[in-house]
Amino acid sequence: MLTPDPDDIRRAADHLRRGGLVAFPTETVYGLGADAFNEAAVRRVFQLKGRPASNPLIVHVTGRDMARRVVSSWPDAAEALSRALWPGPLTLVLPKADALPPIVTAGGHTAAVRAPDHPVALSLLFEFNGPLVGPSANPSGRVSPTRAEHVRESFTPEDILVLDGGPCAAGIESTVLDLTTDPPRILRRGVIGARQIAAVLGISPDRIEDRTPTAQREQPTSPLPSPGMLASHYAPHAPAVLFDPVQWPQVEQLAAQARAAGRHIAVLTHERRTLPEPHAVLTLPPAAHTYASMLYDALRRADSLVPATIAVERPPLTSDDPVDASIWEAVHDRLTRATRPL
C-alpha cells in the first residue's frame, strides 16, 4: 500500500471540484470517483462505464458525519455498525437525503454509503471535503480493478485522473447491507459476513436475510436497491467456466480440443495442476484472504492471454473460521456470476 502524496491528493481534489473524474484505491477495488452532488459528473461516470441507469452507485464518505449528508435517517443499527466496522468493506443502505441527485440512486429512494479503509481514499475524501460516488473503475460488468494499471488499461488520461495506491488488500467488493428492513438483509456478499454484523447488532446471524441475487435480469427497468445485484457480472472477455476438482479430466479434454483447433486455455487453480504448452496454469494461494485479494488480478492476467476458455477451479466452499467462511462465500458469489458451470 502506497503512502498518499499530498500534492497528488490536492490535484485530484481540485479535479473533482471542476467536475472531473478520479480513480482512487480502496481496500476492496479501485473506484471511479466523482462529486456525488454534481449531477453532470455522476452522469459522466455512468457514460464512461457503460453502466445501466437502473444500477445505483455507492457513495464514499469519511465517516458517520459525512454519511448523514447523503441519507435522511441514521438508525441505531447504522450507528453501531459504523462505529464497529468503519472504515471498512461494509456498505449501508438507508433512505436517501433529498439533496442527493436521483441519478446516484438510479431514481430509487435509498442510498448506499460506506467509509473506505485506505489512506489514499480517505485522504482524498478529507481533502475534497465531500461525498464521492465510487463504482469500480472498469467497464460495466467486467472484472473489477485491483491495481492502478488495471484502470489505465480501460480508460485514457483524458477520461480520468488515476491515483495509484498499490494493490487492493481485500480484492472483493464490499458487503452491502440493507438497513431499511428489520431485520437487515445482505444485498451483496463481501468479506464482512452475517456473523460479524449480527455480533455488532446483538442478534442471531440467522435473522439476517441473504438477498444476494441468483437470477437478476441483465437490464432491469426499475431501480435496483444496491449495486452488484446483476446475475452476470465481474466477467472476463474470454468465456469462463467453473469446475470442481473431480472435473479435472474434463478440463484436460477441453485443453486438448483447444490445442487441436490451434488455440489454448488458461486455468486458475489453488491446487497443483499442470498442462502442456501452449496452455497456461495460474496458481492462486489456498488461504481465503490472499485468494480473494489476488482473484481479479489473476482473471485479468488469464484474459490477457486471449485464451479460448478460462477454466476456474472451484475453491473451498466454506471454513470453520467465520471470517474465512464469509470471504469464501463472497468469492463464490463473484465466480458464479463471472462464469458458467463446466
CATH-level-2 architecture of the largest domain? Alpha-Beta Complex
Structural class: alpha/beta
Count of structural domains: 2
The chain-level mean pLDDT equals 93
What is the top-level CATH class of the largest domain?
Alpha Beta
Distance between the termini: 37 Å
Strand order of the largest sheet: 7-1-2-6-3-5-4-8-9-10
Helix content: 25-40%
What percentage of amino acids are in beta strands?
15-25%
Q: How many individual β-strands?
A: 15
Q: Can you tell me the overall shape?
A: globular
Give the low-pLDDT segments.
215-219
**From the alpha-carbon coordinates, what is the Rg to the nearest angstrom?**
20 Å
Looking at CATH, the homologous superfamily of the largest domain is: DHBP synthase
Number of helices: 10
What kind of sheet is the major sheet? 10 strands, mixed
Task: Note down, in words, how this protein is organized.
- The protein has two domains: 6-210, DHBP synthase, CATH 3.90.870.10; 240-341, 3-Layer(aba) Sandwich (Rossmann fold).
- α7 (194-201) links the parallel β9 (185-188) and β10.
- The longest helix has 17 residues, at 288-304.
- It has ten helices and 15 strands.
- It has helices at 6-17, 39-49, 64-67, 76-85, 119-128, 148-154, 194-201, 248-260, 288-304, 322-338; strands spanning 22-24, 31-35, 58-60, 90-95, 110-114, 132-133, 161-162, 175-178, 185-188, 209-210, 240-243, 265-269, 280-283, 309-313, 340-341.
- The chain has 342 residues and is an alpha/beta fold.
- 32% of the residues lie in helices and 16% in strands.
- α1 packs across α5 (119-128).
